Amino acid sequence: MTYQINHFINGQSYSDLNRTQNIYNPATGKIIGTVAMAEEQTVNKAVTSAKNAFPKWSAMPSTRRVRILFELRSLIEKNMNELASLISQEHGKTINDALGSIQRGIDALEFVCGIPFLVKGSYAENVATDVDSYTIRQPLGVCVGITPFNFPAMIPLWMFPMALACGNTFILKPSEKDPSCSIRLVELAKEAGLPDGVLNVIQGDKEAVDVLLRHPDVKAISFVGSTPIAEYIYQTGVSHGKRVQAFGGAKNHCIIMPDADLDQAVDALIGAAYGSAGERCMAISVAVAVGDDVADALIKKLKPKVENLKIGSGTLPETEMGPLITQQHLERVKSYVDLGIKEGAELIVDGRHFKCSENKEGFYLGGCLFDKVTSDMKIYQDEIFGPVLVMVRVPNFEAALALINEHEYGNGTSIFTHDGYTARTFASKVQVGMIGINVPIPVPVAYQTFGGWKRSLFGDIHMHSTDGMQFFTRIKTITQRWPKYMKTEAEFEIPTIK
User: Fold this and answer.
1) Which residue is catalytic, options 166, 254, 281, 368?
2) Could you say which of 118, 227, 251, 493 has the lowest number of CB atoms within 10 Å?
């Protein structure tokens, strides 16, 4: 039996069935549902709902807004298993991976519950004679989050709780590939006491996104996805007067130094490269081996582990890596493996012909491992977004550092070493936004900011923590004078401190 996923507007499900798209279970390759694809009138309805809810919601004391969000946190915790099952069913990732991503979203939600302190502004007394100056932070209005398929709970939870806590109203446009989790989140928000219209969900594709990008009542847009689309979102949104943060792609490197614990590095690479089938913007997809001895040892240790990955349905407890999201994406990743062979890289482990014995029609790809990859190859330059790890050999640390700094992406990177000076130099000199030292996936905790450099981010404000608060508010500075006797003479010079 299949199901239908609709929009959620003004506190209730809303049907718009002029266009629909199939939802697949990647583990079986079978259609399990359909999702409504919003047209312009539906998007306008959602924006109107959020706009109408904004005055009352923004005027609500921040402590009352936070109580609702704190209740939402409790409800998400109570329903984590259900949410994880929805994610695994429509995305394919393992239950444990789904649970971990939900917990990361909860962490961000917990940070948001301290928003009254963060938005309290500043006050300076007597900046001039009888003159005081202070700042306040105020919400923007209707904000939008456009989120990717790979984290259907975590990334929305990095966006809308912060926006709502700051007094904005919100429209979430999740991926049409796995839309069920978004609906369940807003249902839980309603159960927590969120007023109707404050949080809405629009299902859809580029048609819906373009309406949001150009709508005059939308004030800010937060996006996570591929670099070409991030650039389009940023340029289009900014050209229509909106505040935009657009997080793009990545090609995350991991340097393995000669003094590193190779067993630790190999285990880290296996999890970071093949976890979630490589469908993470923080996945490690390039191993940079410093010296041929290190490279040879790594290949020897990596090869059997990649060959013996436990691949299958994400709902099975023994599964280490699930399927890719769609048949189309599976074929795209395979095409990069084909290309790598043509480019002259050495394919150590070939996962292209893997078939899951329980689900032969699922969108599965075995782990792939390349050696002797060079920086002019497309498999090195492009974000493949699949279970493909490439090994680049360099002679020394300086060459490894230069390799990373010359790449167009600058999202995350790691180094494995026991040498403090090397690690410190790496952290200081590498041109990447998030750094791991003996940590394979350096996703910051919720009270630090998340974001990359170069073509991994369009905009200048990162996500969650204090950057999230800054993105979803604007500052206002008030200068006031309350003297005992008011002056009546005009002053024609610019005010100065007297």
Assistant:
1) 281
2) 493
